[in-house]
Amino acid sequence: MRALLRSVVVTVFMALVAGAAANLAWAQGEWKADPKCVTGAKNSVKGVGGAKKTVETNCVTCHGASGKGDGAAAAALPPPKPADWTSPKVQAESDPVLFCKISDGRGAMPPWKHLPEKDRWELVNYIRTLKK
Ligand code: HEC
Q1: Which residues have C-beta atoms less than 6 Å from ligand 1?
Q2: Which tens digit of pLDDT belongs to each residue from 37-90?
Q3: What is the pLDDT of residue 66?
Q4: Are 24 and 101 in contact (CB under 8 A)?
Q5: Residue 12 contacts residue 87 (beta carbons within 8 Å)
Q6: 10 Å Cβ neighbour count for 77?
Q7: Hey, whose CA ends up nearest to atom 19 of ligand 1?
Q8: Closest ligand 1 atom to the C-alpha of 54?
Q9: pLDDT of residue 107
């Protein structure tokens, strides 16, 4: 009985440790866009449309007015911090990857799938205008 109890305790403990490690990897490892989304995504939208407004409403609190990742809420967030859209790292991502990351979100970055697809592509095009 004792041995059984101990093995149950050990199993639960191991599950907790594994869960915490997986969580950490999810929150802080490199963020890869969902390959299924990326394969099916193609940018056929021209221009930025109303993206500036969409950004002001939905993104500046975290990503900042100039997209540098320095919005008012950024200081309070634990790492990974909101991405700097002007950075070479973000600019090196393909359009479909940015589109899928914006759509799906991760951790503190909310998913924006509820925005029309055209609006999400315009967000991608807008981010491109910030390239240094
Ligand atoms: C509540 C804060 C918050 C809001 C609001 C927010 N983001 Fe983010 N964003 C983040 C965080 C945090 C990350 C980094 C996530 C990570 O690396 O796991 C991020 C990452 C990104 C990235 C990833 C870049 C890359 O190459 O990995 C893009 C693109 C992005 N955000 C676009 C947007 C857009 C567009 C909006 C508005 C429609 C928006 N975000 C709103 C917090 C936010």
Answers
A1: 31, 58-59, 61-63, 73, 77, 80-83, 90, 93, 98, 101-102, 106-110, 112, 123
A2: 999 999 999 999 999 999 999 999 999 999 999 999 999 999 999 999 999 999
A3: 96
A4: no
A5: no
A6: 15
A7: 82
A8: 38
A9: 95
Q: Give the pLDDT score at 19.
A: 47
pTM to 2 decimal places: 0.85
pLDDT band at 132 (very low <50, low <70, confident <90, very high): confident
Ligand 1 atom nearest the C-alpha of 120 is 35
The pairs formed by 38-47 with CB atoms below 8 angstroms and a separation of 24 or more are 38/94, 38/96, 38/97, 38/100, 39/96, 41/95, 41/96, 41/99, 41/100, 42/96, 43/95, 43/96, 43/99, 43/121, 43/124, 43/125, 44/121, 45/118, 45/121, 45/122, 45/125, 46/125, 47/122, 47/125
Q: Which two tokens stand for residue 132?
A: 């240094």
How far does Cα 101 stand from its chain's mean position? 5
At residue 80, the pLDDT reads 95
Mean residue pLDDT across the chain: 88
For a mutational test of ligand 1's pocket, the pick from 26, 32, 63, 120, i.e. the residue with the most ligand atoms closer than 8 A to its C-beta, is 63
